[in-house]
Amino acid sequence: MNDFLSGTVFALCCIAGLFFLRFWRKTRDRFFAFFAASFFLMALHRVVVLALRDSNEHLVAAYLIRLLAFVLILVAIVDKNRVPKK
Amino acid sequence: MTMADAVFLLCALTSLACAVLLLRGYARNRVPLLLWSSLCFVGLAVNNVLLVVDLVVIPQGPDLTTFRHLSALVSLGLLVFGLVWDSE
Amino acid sequence: MRSNDLPEDVRSLITDHIESVEQLEILLLLHQHGSRVWTAESVARELRIAPNSAGERMDELARASILARTQGSPAEYRYAPKSPSLDAAVAGLAKAYSERRVTVINFIFSKPVDKIRTFADAFRLRRDDDDNG
After folding, report:
1. Is the pLDDT of residue C121 over 50?
2. How far is the CA of B66 from the CAs of B35, B50, B57, B70, B81, in angstroms?
3. N or C, which end of chain B has less CB nearby within 10 Å?
4. Chain B environment of A1 (Cβ under 8 Å)
């Protein structure tokens, strides 16, 4: 059950990432590139948690990926507010 | 507070910040996409808090894994719904 | 006349920077007179609109780097687009407005809400009318 849920979340993260990728392509606003990367990392996080399930390493590696995903969102917000409005 | 706690709380706070900004945007513009994505980030904040609780606060207690996955599922579900239904 | 008869750069210019017919007329007035310097008062007299309103519209255009604004009181404005392509777009807009006035006006009023940009704009911490610090 948990694996099914996790797999579904993985797929939804990928879809969200794809949408943001499309928005980036459309608007050339790198804000969306950051968001796309962030959601793809969230998807990767799911895979890594699953793959490393039986090892003791999984907490550190997987959750660093999650941290990076959220840091990228922070970077996106900071970057959006740094660049002077054209 | 350990490093892990701090990390997950940072994730939760970032999610909440996004939710607040998007809600503020929705109040101004009434674009439904903003509402769905803000709910997504609220859910992700809940997800991160559940993670802290599950791994750190009550590690020996009941396993919250299913709840964590459900919160992530609902969050992402709302976001993808908003993106598919209302992004153009 | 359908609005996709308008050239792409003109449509982008309107979508990005022109919110009202008043703003359009102000921009075209300054464009027409090249390097002449205007104040909100002088523009208001010329176009017979309220000076406050004229000043606000010109501030918006200055923030968009289409007009240059000098500090001081009263503030002075001059047509000064930041790039040749922007200048070309304004020239195209002037031509379109003189030849197909109704099409241009309809296009201004039918601007669709850009949902994607609204999403990104929600993350701007300051309100749009603040200057960046």
Report:
1. yes
2. 26, 10, 17, 6, 22
3. N
4. 66
